[in-house]
Amino acid sequence: MTKIKYTKKEKKELDQMGDELVTALNRGVLEDACVFSKFFRNAIKFSIKTHEIYQKQKRKGKDIPYITHPLTVGLILANAGAPDHIVVGGILHDTIEDSVTEKKVTYEMIKERFGPSVADIVNDVTEQDKSLPWKKRKELALKHIETMDGPSLWVKTADVVCNISDLIDDYKIDGDKVFERFNAPKTESLMNNRSVLNALIKRWEGKDNPLLSDLKTLLGDIEDLM
Question: Is the predicted pLDDT of residue 29 greater than 80, yes or no?
Fold first, then answer.
């Protein structure tokens, strides 16, 4: 085999190219191993744009940025040990349902940016027809819990844990006035929350999910208010 001879300049350039290649490969490995990866960062940015930048959305009846909700849902899921795509699904779970017309988020958009697994989760927890009366919408949402896939059920559970925890905390401060923020009176609202909690508990009973204890605790809190 003929040995190729390089000039000092060529050898230096090749060595530099080799070093850059190794660095690039190592950077890729390190990025893949990052806890706070681009996958999470991009999901957070996307959710912030949808809820905060494009519409300054607020939590219902409160002067609190809505973005705190999906980020909290993501935190609940991460703390419960959910896989990355489910955590990201939690961070993005309201982007289709709550995006404004001019910047409408679609299933295809999420699929392109975050993959089909995340897009399927977000679509599955999205309320498909918000024009329906409140009672009908809640009936459909309750029925849907019975057939939700595992990843979607994780996100739905974290969403409910976040929302009802907020309700309980706010009730301790404002009492019955908290129900003025919603589309149903106190009794109907509490009955719906109880039904949703019971449906989720039924789906998770006997399965390994740390959020099951949260659901049972919140069910007791709701029943105390009835």
Answer: no
